[in-house]
Design goal:
Elements (H helix, E strand, L loop, with lengths): L11 H30 L57 H10 L3 E6 L7 E5 L11 E6 L5 E3 L8 H10 L3 E4 L7 E5 L5 E3 L3 E6 L14
Parallel strand pairs: 1-3, 5-8
Antiparallel strand pairs: 2-3, 4-7, 6-8
């Protein structure tokens, strides 16, 4: 009698383990072959390289010294001072005019004058120095050469006037003031006396200040 054991061997256990092992190896090989076949089919000769490291942007090559500094302006060229000009002021065309009119015209243009009388006849201007049309600066003295001698005129009476006013009046009438005791105060004396006879370009002496009690020359006012 038997206990029901047929005596058949169970080979399924070891054979199945080997089969599973071989199947696992096949899967791994297929995965490797698939990955390799992917870049081969893509036409690449070499396997893909790892991504390159990021590079910094190229330098502009501009040195620090050449870069503009905030708040600092670029250097400017030095300025040059233009030479002063006469602003179009010239000796007016006074040749042939009466010397009194010529003198007044010079005064209006803020030019000085000097009268030089001649030995001929008449009272007109024969020439000027500088010449007519010459560019001049304000205040320049222009000499007027008159054809004839200095004409007669009357000396103004300036006693009692302020010294500055007296001098202006004498100049207007063609005389030159000569200050004997300074240029301040009132005129206490003059020579020649007022209302006397004289000629253009004559000199008139004036004493400015209080007259001394002894009748001498007046002392200037402080």
């Amino acid at each position: 009698m038997t206990d029901g054991d047929t005596g058949a061997r169970d080979d399924a256990g070891p054979d199945r383990s080997a089969l599973l092992l071989r199947g696992g190896l096949a899967v791994v090989l297929l995965a490797a072959v698939g990955a390799t076949g992917g870049w081969l089919l893509a036409g690449e000769d070499d396997p893909p390289a790892p991504p390159a490291a990021a590079e910094s942007p190229p330098s502009t090559g501009t040195p620090d010294a050449a870069r503009p500094t905030p708040g600092r302006s670029a250097p400017q060229a030095p300025r040059t001072t233009a030479p002063s000009r006469s602003a179009g002021l010239t000796v007016p065309p006074v040749v042939g005019e009466e010397f009194t009119d010529a003198r007044d015209e010079l005064r209006e243009k803020r030019l000085g004058w000097r009268l030089v009388f001649g030995q001929g006849t008449g009272t007109t201007v024969e020439r000027t120095s500088p010449e007519v049309g010459t560019e001049v600066q304000p205040g320049r003295t222009v000499t007027l050469y008159v054809s004839g001698p200095a004409p007669a005129t009357t000396v103004p009476d300036v006693v009692g006037d302020d010294c500055d006013d007296a001098a202006d009046e004498l100049v207007d009438e063609g005389f030159y003031p000569h200050y004997r005791t300074g240029k301040t105060g009132k005129v206490s004396r003059q020579d020649p006396a007022g209302d006397g006879a004289g000629r253009w370009n004559d000199q008139v002496s004036i004493w400015c200040g209080d007259a001394p009690e002894d009748g001498g020359s007046p002392s200037p006012t402080p």
